[in-house]
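Q: I have 243 residues here and want to know how they pack in 3D. Can you give me a structure?
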Amino acid sequence: MRTIEQRKQIMGQKDNKKSIKWPEMPWDEVIDRVEKITFQVVTDSTMGTCFAVSLGSMHSLKSKFVCFATAWHVIKCVSKMDKRITLVSADRKTVCECKPGYYEVFQLGPEIFDTALIFLRSSEKIIGQEDLLPMLDYDRMMPRGTEIGLVGFPGIVQTDLCFFRGAISGYIDKPMTYLVDGVAVNGVSGGPAFDNRAHIIGLVSAYIPNKVDQTTTLPGLMALIPINAIRYWLEHMLKAKVL
């Protein structure tokens, strides 16, 4: 496993520029941007979604590195890094067969935070620097009532990337979690959530059903992990460039 200092070297030095403030856009334009960084995650026993949050390179190895964010429960089965992970881009044109030794899985915080990073090494370009999207500042939270979108690969059907929409309903404090008036289905876990400026605000964690009794389940709420911790970790621990 690499040390924090080695990861700092890989992901580059901190960019001191202020966060990019993009204008509001129609949802179809936002989705066009988000899908460029969104990949399906497939392991021997799980399937989910991930998205790129940072890029780097190490000249001594002549390799490029991509840091993907996802939900911990999607990839904890490969945490010992002795198994393959397959990452497939939203347009199905890029398939990354992540062999042991070419990727690292990093759990961010205790299991209850359900947050993980995948560091993938490749000699080929996977995404461009221009494709990365800004993330919400780590000291901010989205207010109640904010309309958000999210994307992922539902496991209930064989389909391309799907778009979902909801609104911030409230919060859970420990750990900090958005409650969203929207749905989350198997396969969408780990997918990015974003506002209508294409700012990444979090990742899909779970769906909390409203169980009336043992036989009756009504629509519930989606649990969304804020991007704050990931941005803070990238900026302050890795000194990585974050938009």
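Q: Anything worth noting?
A: The first strand starts at residue 38 and ends at 42. Residues 11 and 56 are 4 Å apart (CA to CA).
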